[in-house]
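Pilot study result, target chain (98 residues):
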Amino acid sequence: MHDVVNHAERYVNGQVHTNGLENFWSLLKRTLNGTYVAVEPYHLERYIDEQIFRFNNRATKDNPLTDSDRFVAALAQVANKRLTFAELTGKTGSQEAF
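Predicted structure:
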């Protein structure tokens, strides 16, 4: 089910609000502009995936993660996956992804 909040009436409707999404995009923009200053368009999906992982595995009161917990979770997701140099540089197939 998809819930909505009419901001003309209120900003929160129980657990439904936009603060989490706005926080995510703020962190992504800060990362792209500060840490990764030269982002190629064909890598953007990977940067977003990394930020999604960081956001979903951040330490909270309900989910007290340590750095080693996050490292183990990251390793579990890359097992048996291969990234070739051609894929990394966006030069897969007969066309370049520029």
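One observation from the pilot: DSSP finds four helices and no strands in the chain. A full batch analysis is planned for the follow-on phase.
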